[in-house]
Write a structure and sequence with these properties.
The chain is of the alpha+beta class. It contains 3 helices and 8 strands. It folds into 2 domains: about 1-60, no CATH class; about 65-170, Lipocalin, CATH 2.40.128.
Length: about 170
């Protein structure tokens, strides 16, 4: 966040400097108001670019074995351009390197979900997916595994079979 702020200010200073240099080369024919206007436009453009490129930069930095399962695009009144080009602000990734199955319950797969959000810390959530019955249970405090590996005290949530997170978690690697 801090580096993006520095980059935004640098873009504003660079744009203002280029307009000042252009004005000097033209013998002072440009209006002086063009300097702060160009700085503001450059800063706004840089901010918009950084916001829109966040998802692709973050996705490219993911290590091997972590697969993006679902993205969330949002629009906002105070960012009217998002109505034309919605912005990806959150996504869910499945860490397939943590996938585990129990031979007694072959249709159930335990994975770690990574919840990414713009300006939010990454959250890791261990989840058990019942691939055959289309349900999931978060491994939270109070959920226990029996000696056979069955979940006890789990809150199973039914999800549609075409849910992208379920399909990614249950996919064979």
């Amino acid at each position: 966040m801090f580096l993006e702020l520095i980059g935004t200010f640098a873009a504003g200073f660079a744009a203002a400097g280029m307009v000042m240099l252009l004005n000097k080369m033209l013998g002072g024919r440009l209006p002086r108001s063009l300097i702060p206007i160009s700085a503001g436009v450059a800063m706004l453009g840089t901010t918009i670019s950084l916001e829109y490129n966040w998802y692709s930069r973050t996705e490219q930095a993911l290590p091997e074995g972590i697969v993006v399962a679902q993205t969330v695009e949002e629009t906002a009144v105070y960012r009217p351009w998002t109505y034309v080009f919605p912005q990806t602000t959150r996504f869910i990734a499945v860490d397939q390197g943590t996938a585990r199955t129990n031979t007694d319950f072959p249709d159930q797969k335990m994975v770690t979900l990574l919840l990414f959000g713009r300006w939010a810390p990454v959250r890791q959530v261990p989840v058990v997916f019942d691939c055959a019955n289309g349900r999931r249970a978060d491994i939270v405090q109070g959920v226990e595994f029996s000696d056979s590996g069955a979940l006890r005290n789990a809150n199973w949530v039914t999800i549609p079979p075409d849910n992208p997170v379920l399909m990614t978690a249950c996919a064979e690697v």
